[in-house]
Design a protein that fits this description.
Length: 177
């Protein structure tokens, strides 16, 4: 059976970290980009998984994970009933701006500490030392609860849309609770 990855000797193309010589450093195929290697060595971590993703695979994963289409269909009604077409357009612009600020701040934190942990790791890094464990623990659990609520909401919205299509196409169907 072949190994999942093969080690390659260190090459001079990769950034050299102080205190390490080329003879003792080995880079594996799953290292990602040169900057990934440098960041991981700077933090004292070893690379565990391949971190190269193409644009379309990342976009597709985000669409599936966020239930974007179901959410869009279910929430468009609020903007249209409360403000009409103009209200829906303006709220999209405001939401884009607001989420843009959140994304920029998370990108800044990710550039300082690129980890798979995300928010709970960043909270641990930036919180006061006396509160790091508790705040990180609470943030991690709030993320887990958010994932569970998001999964349940996606299923609920998909079921509601299917039921709406049945009501639309079969006049004899009466929805029941």
């Amino acid at each position: 059976m072949e190994p999942l990855y093969q080690e390659k000797p260190y090459s001079s193309q990769h950034p050299v970290v102080e205190g390490k010589t080329q003879e003792i450093v080995h880079i594996v195929e799953k290292h990602g980009t040169e900057l990934d290697v440098h960041d991981m060595e700077r933090m004292g971590k070893s690379q565990q998984f391949k971190r190269n993703f193409a644009f379309f695979s990342t976009l597709g994963f985000a669409m599936v994970l966020m239930s974007s289409w179901e959410t869009q269909l279910a929430t468009a009604v609020f903007g249209l009933t409360n403000g009409g077409t103009a209200g829906a357009i303006y709220i999209y612009i405001a939401t884009f701006f607001g989420f843009g600020l959140a994304i920029v701040s998370m990108a800044e934190m990710a550039s300082m500490a690129p980890t798979a942990g995300g928010q709970y790791h960043w909270v641990s890094e930036f919180a006061a030392p006396s509160k790091q464990k508790f705040v990180s623990y609470m943030t991690g659990w709030l993320c887990v609860l958010g994932w569970q609520a998001g999964s349940a909401a996606g299923c609920y919205l998909a079921g509601t849309e299917i039921q709406g299509l049945i009501v639309l196409n079969h006049p004899g169907y009466v929805p029941q609770r």
